[in-house]
Amino acid sequence: MKDIYYAEKKLTKALGKMAKNATEPKLKQAFLTHQSQTEDQISKLEKAFGLLGVPPKAKKCAAIDGLLEESNEHIEEYAKGAGLDAAMIVGAQKVEHYEIAAYGSMRSFARTLGYGDVALIFEQIREQESDTDELLTVLAEGVINLKAEGETEDVSESAKSAAAEHKAGSEDSEAGEDSSSSYSGREGGDDALAGDGMMNGDDDATIDEETTNNPDDMADDDASNGEEDIVISSLTDGGDREGESETGEPMGY
Ligand SMILES: [Fe+2]
Ligand SMILES: [Fe+2]
User: Fold this and answer.
1) Distance between CA 66 and CA 94 in Å, rounded?
2) What is the per-residue pLDDT across 168-210, written as a single tens digit (0 to 9) for each?
3) How far away, in angstroms, is 164 Cα from ligand 1 center?
4) How far is the CA of 229 from the centre of ligand 2 (A)?
5) Rounded to the nearest 5 degrees, what angle is found at the Cα of 64, between the Cα atoms of 212 and 11?
6) Is-contact 125 44, C-beta < 8 A?
7) Cystine design at 59: which of 2, 9, 17, 18 (Cβ 3.0–4.6 Å)?
8) Which domains does the chain have, with CATH numbers?
9) Which backbone phi and psi does 211 adopt, to 5 degrees?
């Protein structure tokens, strides 16, 4: 939970940057919508922490850092246009698949341990991630890659490469889709779709958080004093987000 809590907080920034760099209006809107959903997911996670009786804390997630680094590279590598749109879809779908896997496991563990209310929260978020993945597939198979093919030779080749990468991921997703969920609740999904989640403004996103004396946390950390400083600093151009950590300290991003 600490891992995905960290990931979601970073993703709010990343989605803003992706929206800012998207050319296709439908893709831009998809990123903004999911940014809004992601903020809602952070609240849901905080509720889950509360149901488990533990304070919400973030723990550095190397996986999401790596995926977002890749996404940043795409943005730096491609000029704005259909080629970059296609590349960002690839990056975003990799993130969605990571989240789908994480929330699927968390849901199952919570269910097995008898935390049905927590399992329901995880399943609701997993469904949002899955819906986003499917929407990105629709966009990839629709207008974006067709436009990418019409761009200059260089960009067209890049887009084809990105599309090929995406196609492989999409097929994996379909094969791995969990269709056995016993949950039908979709709380929040439609609400989030209505939100615009605009996050304008440039800043350096920095989250300094989690200082804990919890022995479990100390075991996770390199630092022997139990303190864990997490700095979130990449993919920050998408905007500013006000917030504070649940330790009561302002999240300085
Ligand atoms: Fe998420
Ligand atoms: Fe997501």
Assistant:
1) 11
2) 554 554 444 443 333 333 333 333 333 333 333 333 333 434 4
3) 25
4) 24
5) 85
6) yes
7) 2
8) 2-144 (1.20.1260.10)
9) -120, 120
